[in-house]
Amino acid sequence: MALEVARLAPDLLSAIWLIDSFPGLSARHGDAWKMIEWLQKNEGPFTTRTEVLKKLKEAQFPEAIAAWMATNLEPEGKLLKWIFPVKGIASLLDDYAKTDLTDTLLNPPCPIHVVKGTKSPLITDDLIQKIQHSKTRFPISLHFVEAGHWVHSENPKELLRIMMSSFKG
Quick check: helix, strand or coil at residue 58? Predict the structure, then answer.
């Protein structure tokens, strides 16, 4: 979203944080798609959060991801349901995969921070090379966090430490 805002209304931004997201055209692969496919098969409702955690563990999602996903359940009577529309998320992710904002990333209208989960394949070595060799008016900072794609739930303390170091005041 931030890259799209940067493309359409660059004066609105003072900095951009790209958290383990590929700004170019991409296929249906990776952790996000794996989760979407799981959600489509497990739309609920559910009787308990424990039931959901067990199913996510059986699908081999890391415990931190499962715990974060379970926070996205809300009561509906005596059952639990997802707080988001699964079909809508799949549609948004499809649209995201069709959008190439690489040029905006490599020529940002403001400073940009790119966070890569070291175990995630989404930010490719090729893109890292392009970032490292780009000559831009504004700096592009690369940060590496020991995590997969779900950086915010797999290593939130390190992500927060990196982000806080860039804020003034």
Answer: helix
